[in-house]
Design goal:
The protein is mainly beta. It has one domain. About 5% of the residues lie in helices and about 45% in strands. The protein has 1 helix and 11 strands, in the order E-E-H-E-E-E-E-E-E-E-E-E. Strands 1, 2, 3, 4, 5, 6, 7, 8, 9, 10 and 11 form an 11-stranded antiparallel beta sheet that branches. Strand 1 and strand 2 form a beta hairpin. The longest helix has 12 residues. It starts with 5 loop residues before the first strand and ends with a strand.
């Protein structure tokens, strides 16, 4: 019998209109990146520096063709970041790991200030720009999702480890 060690995550996203009514809910299972997994290996099994702050960004449907495991924050030619919100990428603050799970208690919120269509989300070590580590990308299971001015996206990201 072979056991496989796995690490994966899910973005749970809810979109509320300006009146607080739920418009849609979707999940996006992440695809790891080479740089993200290399960072984890270097940090845990060599002398790599830990990243202590992580941020969530949105993937736009504009110019989208696909996400790839070799994507980085500096180089992801097949997709663009969607930013129908003001400011930088909001921070993801995780609780301590328990039972092979790590998640955020408080949602990561985006106040939408432009009409747009988003395909999914990503987790990165930088709150803006193209420097830093791209841990993962994830596409919505239900396909592209529309957001309009006044909406709020509430996101929970849950990272899970498995030995099966």
């Amino acid at each position: 019998m072979k056991n496989a060690f796995k690490v994966g995550g899910i973005f749970e996203v809810s979109c509320y209109d300006r009146y607080g009514n739920l418009k849609w809910r979707d999940e996006a299972k992440n695809a790891g990146t080479v740089v993200g997994l290399n960072h984890m290996l270097e940090t845990e099994f060599r002398s790599g520096a830990a990243i202590t702050a992580w941020f969530i960004g949105l993937i736009s449907n504009n110019s989208y063709t696909n996400v790839q495991e070799n994507d980085t924050l500096a180089s992801h030619a097949n997709w663009t970041e969607g930013n129908p919100y003001a400011g930088n990428r909001p921070g993801w603050t995780a609780n301590a790991a328990a039972n092979k799970i790590m998640t955020n208690n408080n949602t990561v919120d985006f106040t939408i200030n432009a009409n747009a269509t988003v395909k999914g989300a990503f987790l990165a070590s930088n709150n803006s720009g193209t420097g830093g580590t791209l841990w993962c990308t994830a596409l919505f299971g239900g396909g592209d999702q529309a957001v309009t001015i006044g909406d709020t996206l509430k996101i929970t990201y849950t990272l899970t480890g498995s030995t099966t």
